[in-house]
Design brief:
Distance between the termini: 64 Å
Radius of gyration: 34 Å
Helix content: 55-70%
Shape: elongated
Structural class: mainly alpha
């Protein structure tokens, strides 16, 4: 949430002083460690955070929060940091006692004759504990175990010997904004900032001109409270911007959902009471059920319906109508068709279940970090192409949705600009969809065609690799025109991590082994199929079983349940797998009824060219889910006419896979990008759709050119 950035920025700027002590050398470091045992002067955990980096607040909420609020607002708060005024000749022991009573973040303004000579804080106290001479800058005593730092002489020393001199003080006026104060404190490595009256001279400052003293801990606390207040204000603002949702308690989506359910329920009752009419028009009822279900899938956000539920209802209704009212055979024959289609669909569902679980287990072990941590480049253009090529090849062996999530998450750690992350994210979607086309396990549509026998492993890789690569290069060449050079990357300095990036957890020691077993399991599936002749889902289940045994053996004694397969299974998108089941079973009903054959004949008559039919399917996949599209084409065309690895099947695999990149809603990867980086339909249409369309057309041309070249070579030989 962007309105929480000021809070994160403040917390990221806390603790520069303690880190400076740790790096100042062994003598001072040991003294500081002993001094920190004094509870009254021990910095809190929140104030010991490293990386004094400050990020500005963004969004309309910033104008109402810390970005615009003046420091005078904080000084007037009850929780404002306290300060005490002491004489320059007061002993350190007395001043330290007053600071302890004043509370966390307190400081002492040291004056001599009404003129400020410096400031004394807990950092200066630590210096006093580690240095015993009156001139600590020249002589420091190295404490040993049999020495005590808290001697009578030290506590009797005048505080003026250890103050931060007035000449070195950095001051601000009450009109300074809180965010500007945070930036200043982070840049200068200071933890206290005196606030003086307008017009007062910092060079000769009297006590009467002092308004207050800011501490970085108090700033962080204030911004935290401010952010929490803005959360409720942000929700109220959203409600004001959408008054129609307030006028309808359930929201327009829920009202539309209830209305749609009511209409469908009433229609179902009427239809099933009019069995004679259904018997005469059963094909129309099946097509109508499919269209209505598909509308529900496309507009699931509008109706507040999960597409998995719609898919299951659509499938059961269509099969019920077909078996009960079609009259295309006896009941035993029709139920046999149902069992046959269920077996085929279950193969795909079990394949996806096993593959997704393997990837989830590898990700839980942070196995992918071995790849992402090596992306250290000095040029943004180099990073752009490196990420694109890496995504292309990763999605060929892993699920392209998972690769998209991993790579987009990586960009959030490398790029701070919203627009840059969106542009790189669009490129990742295009690269993932293109990379998933040319292997049987890369994209779900290619997997469906491969498992159903329309494609073979060897020909899919050799025939579709070139056109997929051409598609990627063409799209990235167009997108690169929008990539702006970064001064930080150009200078070879990695950009600071965004404030929203969570700190890395250490990867388990078994990460490399799990990555090797997981990727090996995925890559061995085609080999398993070739050697055993068993269905591909059996190979994937075998790989999952092997990985399950390995992880159980690795973590049996550690009891790390989150790294084992049962935990991965609980994280899977089960509704997505049930959606595949419902949609594919609905397509199976259309196939069994012969309706898909009729559609194939109509398309062939309208478009005699296989290339045109495949291209139309690809463009349609930008608007319609490519899973049912490909499932429909699998039943539309007979393999007796179009055998395995025919040009039609390969073009459908390419077009359905890459065509979904033309619009952000056309693929699961695009939908994931919408959720991860808040990319909306219009932004993607303006910034990335043209590049995706150029790559789509270039890939088709490359495939046809490759086929023509091979044909010419064969005829010549």
């Amino acid at each position: 949430m962007r309105h929480a950035w000021p809070t994160l920025a403040a917390l990221a700027a806390i603790g520069a002083g303690v880190d400076a002590l740790a790096s100042a050398g062994a003598p001072l470091g040991r003294a500081a460690q002993r001094a920190l045992r004094r509870p009254a002067l021990r910095p809190s955990a929140a104030r010991m955070m490293p990386l004094p980096i400050v990020y500005p607040a963004r969004g309309f909420t910033a104008a109402e929060s810390s970005a615009a609020a003046e420091v005078s607002t904080l000084l007037g708060d009850e929780s404002a940091p306290k300060y005490v005024v002491v004489s320059a000749d007061d002993p350190i022991g007395l001043v330290a006692s007053e600071l302890s009573q004043a509370g966390r973040g307190a400081s002492a303004i040291v004056q001599d004759g009404g003129i400020v000579v410096g400031i004394f804080t807990e950092r200066d106290y630590l210096k006093a504990l580690s240095c015993a001479s009156d001139n600590p800058a020249e002589e420091c005593i190295v404490p040993t175990d049999d020495m005590t730092l808290q001697t009578v002489e030290l506590f009797a020393t005048p505080v003026r010997a250890f103050v931060t001199p007035a000449a070195e003080l950095i001051t601000v006026e009450p009109s300074c904004t809180i965010v500007s104060a945070l930036r200043l404190m982070g840049a200068r490595g200071i933890r206290h900032l005196p606030v003086i009256k307008p017009g007062a001279s910092p060079a000769r400052l009297d006590v009467a001109s002092l308004v207050g003293v800011l501490s970085i801990g108090a700033l962080a606390d204030w911004v935290q409270r401010d952010s929490e207040m803005l959360q409720s204000r942000f929700i109220d603002r959203l409600s004001e911007m959408n008054p129609r949702f307030r006028s309808q308690p359930g929201g327009s989506g829920q009202v539309g959902m209830l209305a749609a359910i009511g209409v469908l329920f009433a229609t179902a009752i009427v239809l099933f009471t009019e069995q004679t009419w259904i018997t005469a028009h059963w094909q129309l009822v099946m097509v109508g059920s499919f269209v209505l279900g598909y509308v529900g899938i496309i507009f699931e956000e509008l109706f507040d319906l999960n597409k998995g539920a719609v898919g299951l209802l659509m499938a059961t209704l269509m099969w019920a109508v077909y078996i009960e009212f079609s009259g295309m055979g006896d009941r035993a024959f029709l139920e046999e068709q149902l069992s046959q289609h269920l077996a085929e669909v279950s193969d795909i569902c079990f394949f996806l279940l096993a593959a997704s679980t393997i990837v989830e287990v590898v990700d839980a072990h942070q196995g992918f970090r071995a790849l992402t941590d090596r992306l250290q480049v000095s040029s943004k253009s180099t990073l752009f192409w490196l990420v694109g090529v890496l995504t292309f090849f990763l999605s060929a062996i892993l699920n392209n949705l998972t690769v998209t999530i991993v790579m987009v998450s990586l960009m959030r750690k490398l790029l701070d600009s919203d627009d840059e992350r969106k542009l790189f994210g669009a490129m990742i979607v295009i690269a993932a969809n293109a990379g998933g086309v040319w292997t049987p396990i890369g994209d779900v549509t290619t997997t469906m065609l491969w498992m159903n026998g329309q494609l073979s492993t060897a020909h899919t890789i050799t025939d579709l690799f070139a056109c997929s690569l051409v598609s990627l290069i063409a799209s990235m060449a167009v997108l690169q025109l929008s990539v702006e050079p970064s001064p930080q990357l150009a200078a070879g300095v990695p950009p600071p991590p965004p404030a929203l990036a969570a700190p890395k957890k250490p990867a388990p020691s078994s990460a490399g082994l799990v990555l090797g077993v997981g990727v090996g399991a995925l890559l061995s599936v085609p080999v398993f199929v070739e050697k055993t002749g068993l269905p591909p889902f059996m190979g994937m289940l075998t790989g999952l079983g092997a990985l399950w045994v390995v992880t159980d053996a690795l973590h049996a004694e550690e009891q790390k349940e989150e790294l084992q397969v049962p935990a991965a299974l609980s994280k899977l998108d089960t509704s997505g797998i049930l959606f595949f089941l419902g949609v594919l079973m609905a397509i199976g009903a259309l196939d069994a009824s012969g309706l898909l054959k009729q559609l194939a004949v109509a398309l062939s008559n309208a478009f005699p060219s296989d290339e045109v039919v495949a291209a139309i399917i690809g463009v349609a996949s930008a608007l319609i889910d490519n899973v049912p599209l490909v499932a429909a084409t699998m039943g539309m065309y007979d393999m007796a006419q179009y055998p395995q690895d025919a040009q039609l099947w390969q073009l459908i695999a390419y077009c359905a896979g890459t065509g979904g990149s033309i619009l952000v809603i056309g693929s699961a990867s695009g939908v994931a990008l919408m959720g991860l980086e808040s990319v909306d339909f219009i932004w993607y249409l303006k910034k990335a759709s043209f590049a995706a369309a150029v790559g789509y057309a270039a890939g088709i041309a490359a495939y046809l050119g490759q086929g023509a070249l091979f044909s010419h070579v064969l005829s010549a030989s």
